[in-house]
Specification:
208 residues, Rossmann fold, 7-stranded mixed β-sheet
Length: 208
């Protein structure tokens, strides 16, 4: 009888351990969409084209709610609600464009993303750029974008190239190459997957 009582207690304890607690899934973010904000500045259309490929990659991740906007059109509410922000810019003299820099400046002036709270802290950040030449300062431009994110205590990820996705546009008369677009999709998918993993605590299975 004593042994029977002990086994009953053990099985009861195991059953209680595996019964889900109401609200626990919501606390971990399970079921909630992960918000991916893709921000870009484009003059001749090449950066916008790469941005669309980033969007395609992000949408491959189940549970990702993706928004793509030109930098001047992004509202503070959209920025602050995002779980991941992927920023793209043309390369101007080895740097991000002035429009892209103004977008980051607005974080503090308009959106009140300030220390010590750092409202973008622990959110995912990633970058992509386009430039006319093979060696036109793309990596430096990527670093300027990532530096702004790191300064805001974001978690930066890369894919495509070592620091992010890039595209060489030449004289600007030809569309982006399939390889460039593939890099963009890979970046978008990875950023979304990492953001979803951080939010839900599980690694999602990509759509085929």
């Amino acid at each position: 009888m004593k042994n029977t009582g002990i086994f009953s207690w053990i099985f009861s304890s195991i059953a209680l351990a595996v019964i889900p607690v109401p609200g626990a899934a919501q606390e971990k973010g399970e079921g909630a969409p992960v918000r991916i904000l893709i921000v870009y500045h484009s003059v001749q259309g090449h950066t916008a084209s790469l941005a669309r490929s980033v969007e395609e990659g992000a949408r491959k991740v189940p549970g990702a709610a993706v928004t793509m906007k030109s930098a001047p059109d992004v509202q503070c509410s959209e920025l602050l609600a995002a779980d991941a922000v992927i920023v793209g810019s043309p390369v101007y003299w080895g740097n991000m464009s002035g429009v892209t820099k103004t977008f980051f400046d607005r974080w503090s002036t308009d959106c009140q993303v300030l220390p010590p709270s750092f409202a973008m802290k622990d959110k995912v950040g990633a970058a992509f750029v386009t430039g006319g030449e093979v060696s036109s300062g793309k990596e430096v431009a990527l670093l300027t974008i990532l530096a702004a994110m790191l300064g805001n205590r974001m978690i930066v990820v890369s894919e495509g190239q070592s620091l992010g996705a890039t595209a060489t546009t030449g004289e600007g008369k030809s569309p982006l190459s399939p390889q460039d677009l593939t890099e963009g999709r890979r970046l978008g998918e990875r950023a979304a997957r990492v953001a979803l993993t951080l939010k839900r605590g599980t690694l999602p299975t990509a759509k085929p």
